[in-house]
Each structure stands twice: as C-alpha cells, then as structure tokens.
Design goal:
205 residues, mainly alpha
C-alpha cells in the first residue's frame, strides 16, 4: 500500500509548526489506489491540523478525510480531534447529500458525537470560507449550505430567508434547508411551515 509522509524540506508556516513540535504525518493510500480501510495514528492526525489547510491537491485531501472517517468509525480517532481537523480545513469541496460524502458525514455523523460547542466552532470556520468565496462559485454554495446546517442563531437564518449572500440564488431547496434548520432549533412553528409548504409545495420538505 502506498503512503505519503512529511519528509519535505520545503518551508511553509504549517510545515514549520509541525517540525517545531517534532511531529510527522503519515497518510496511507494517498492516491486512493485501494479499497482498504486506512487509519490515521494520533500523531499524524494532530500534525494534519497544521498541514491540511495548506494541502490543495483534491485527491490527497480526499485520502486524508477517508483516513479520518475510517479512524473515527473504528474508534481509533476521537471525534474531538476530527472536529479540530474540520475546523482547521472544513471539507467544503466534498459536497453531496449522502453520508458517503465528507461534508455530509461531518454534519450528520461526526457532530452528534462531538463535544459540546463543536457546531459553533465549525460554524465560525465555514462563515470564514463563505465570506472569502467567489460569489456564484460552487465553493460559496457549499460553504453557505454548511453555514446553514451549523447555524445556532435563528436570527442569522431569518436574515438569510430575507436575503441570501450575493451570488447565491434563494431557490426552493435552499429556503427549505433554512426552514428545516429553524425547525431543528425550535424557532419555527407548524403554522409557518404549513404556510411555506402551501406557497411552494415540494416533496423534499
């Protein structure tokens, strides 16, 4: 099985921080060549908190998150440390509604296991991505959806119901994502949901 290790002599802030800590990162199956369930050791996971934000190779990022997911599922990586990784470099590039996609896994599988306050931390992280994203880009839309899913202040969601960020079209699906999150927070009543359904009927709601 292939592996990639941090043995480069390049100097970046992330690599320099890792070296200062005496750490080393090993990512198994970095090109996703196998069907193996690969695991991260704790030292590598902690090192990746510094390194992952600087990794732009999409395949390598996918391999890292495959390692993370397998390690959490098999009880080899604490959910709190996985949240640290998501906060450092939230996987907005891996979209999709199913739990097989990293973004959905973080929101639907990891957060329920994570320590109190984790949702707020990830919300702050995705808001930074949202603010920096190019208007109209897929990255902006993905960050927006993650921001909706992690929001804890109903006022933010209400504001987005009135006006979405520039570059994001407030279509039917997005409006219902806002309403569903408001419902999860107990910030919308049945009458409002019924009125919205009557106005814009959808099988998804």
């Amino acid at each position: 099985m292939n592996a990639i290790t941090d043995e480069t002599t390049a100097s970046t802030p992330a690599l320099d921080r890792l070296r200062e800590r005496g750490g080393r990162v090993v990512v198994l199956d970095p090109r996703l060549d196998t069907w193996a369930s690969t695991l991260l050791d704790e030292t590598s996971a902690r090192g990746l908190v510094a390194l992952l934000p600087g990794i732009e190779d999409e395949l390598l990022r996918a391999a890292v998150w495959n390692n993370v997911r397998s390690s959490v599922h098999q009880g080899r990586l604490a959910p709190a440390l996985a949240v640290d990784l998501a906060e450092a470099s939230f996987p907005v590039e891996d979209t999709g509604a199913t739990g097989r996609r990293t973004l959905a896994w973080v929101l639907q599988w990891l957060l329920p296991l994570a320590p109190e306050g984790s949702r707020a931390r990830l919300h702050r992280a995705v808001r930074l991505i949202l603010d920096a994203a190019e208007p109209g880009s897929e990255r902006q839309l993905s960050a927006y959806r993650a921001a909706v899913a992690t929001a804890e202040d109903p006022a933010d969601l209400r504001a987005w119901l009135e006006a979405t960020p520039a570059g994001i079209e407030a279509d039917l699906e997005l409006r219902w994502e806002l309403l569903v999150r408001l419902a999860a927070l107990g910030a919308v009543d049945v009458a409002e949901l019924d009125a919205a359904l009557e106005t814009e009927r959808t099988d998804a709601a």
